[in-house]
Amino acid sequence: MSEQEVSIFWFRRDLRLEDNVGLFHALKSKNPVIPLFIFDDSILDSLPKNDARVGFIHESLSKINTQLQEIGSSLLIKKGKTVEVWQEILKEFDVKEVFFNKDYEPYAIQRDTAICELLEANNTISYSFKDQVIFEEKEITKADGLPYTVYTPFKNKWLDKYKSMAPVQEYDATYIFSNFYKGDFTFPPLAQIGFEESPIKVKTHNLKFVENYQDIRDFPALDKTSYLSPHLRFGTVSIRKLVNWAFHKNDVFLSELIWREFFMQILFSFPKVVTQNFKSAYDGINWRNDEADFKRWCSGTTGYPMVDAGMRQLNETGYMHNRVRMVVASFLCKHLLIQWQWGEAYFAEKLLDYEMSANVGNWQWAAGTGCDAAPYFRVFNPEIQQKKFDEKGIYIRKWIKEFDLGYGKPMVEHAMARDRAIATYKAGILK
């Protein structure tokens, strides 16, 4: 064991040195701070070896390491089962304090509880901080202390609380960067982690279109989205800086950031939604769950151009435009009567911005089984959606190269599918 007493800051979903709450507090501790990231085998083992998200994490860590090297420090990278890695670290270093930012997903809560118990058993103090949200857990509740399950009152309470403290405090730690541990840890190449480069890449976020967000957000051919979501997911941007900026720029864009926190609160308060309907009355729906139909949906060969373009964009790039996400999700659940869990799992595998709370929340919204969801009798017509939001077919032609050569017929007729969905829902809703 190293004789020098140290503190550790544990990076997870906060891959930045700028405005990082846990890191700020770590650097204010009396001991030099070792910055740590653990590639967790419990997560990695289920991923393909060219998973683009792992590549993005590695790239983001490399940027942090370069910044640290400029001040004589470096990033400690470990790989393995998290508890076993921490046992190894506690033997290697004289760790007095550990700092990290909270994560609210079920696995993360379980993992962090186990690590804190291990640290306590080794006389190491742990501190956790709110960093990836403006308001967490039970900070936005109804008057009786219960969580909101409808978005609009949640949003109104959120805004009232934010306005009372705006701007939210940001944490500039540059003046205490000298407290980073002076050491030259070896930064491993991606191959050493067991992964390889993916042709799919996370795009740089772009905020220049935000001021007109409400006018352009529904038109996928414009390609004028912020591409922020993967950066929020992995914490390469600060939610505090973003919200403080967005509050003065665009109310609709800010509302989308509040939706993110709404779904995170739902997941924290009702963890069953990971696999079960929020509204248990929908548990009796007799889903078709046809595997052949599901494969056609996954591959983007349903015969509905808006649906197929969206799925091909997802498969090729890891992205899908938000308006199109609603169309493809509604099509799977309503037209094909396939459980939302199937689509949620496929999106979890493919989306660069996959975040459990938003993915589960939005899928249940589309299926009509979630909190504050679209009513079950609302069935998007993909052809009308195409005419409204891609009238000239620019988006469709970008992703369906053969579109003008005579595109195939729809795999299911809309009117029939709509009637079938409504009848199936009516019959299946538990009284």
From TrEMBL:
The keyword Glycoprotein does not apply. Its EC number is 4.1.99.3. Keywords: Chromophore, FAD, Flavoprotein, Lyase. InterPro entries: Crypto/Photolyase_FAD-like_sf (IPR036134), Crypto/Photolyase_N_sf (IPR036155), Cryptochr/Photolyase_FAD-bd (IPR005101), Cryptochrome/DNA_photolyase_1 (IPR002081), DNA_photolyase_1_CS_C (IPR018394), DNA_photolyase_N (IPR006050), Rossmann-like_a/b/a_fold (IPR014729). It is an enzyme of class 4 (lyase). Its cofactor is (6R)-5,10-methylene-5,6,7,8-tetrahydrofolate; FAD. Residues 5-134 form the Photolyase/cryptochrome alpha/beta domain. GO terms for molecular function: deoxyribodipyrimidine photo-lyase activity. PROSITE patterns: DNA_PHOTOLYASES_1_1, DNA_PHOTOLYASES_1_2, PHR_CRY_ALPHA_BETA. It comes from the Bacteria. The keyword Lyase applies. Belongs to the DNA photolyase family. This is Cryptochrome/photolyase family protein. It comes from Flavobacterium xylosi. The lineage of its organism: Bacteria, Pseudomonadati, Bacteroidota, Flavobacteriia, Flavobacteriales.
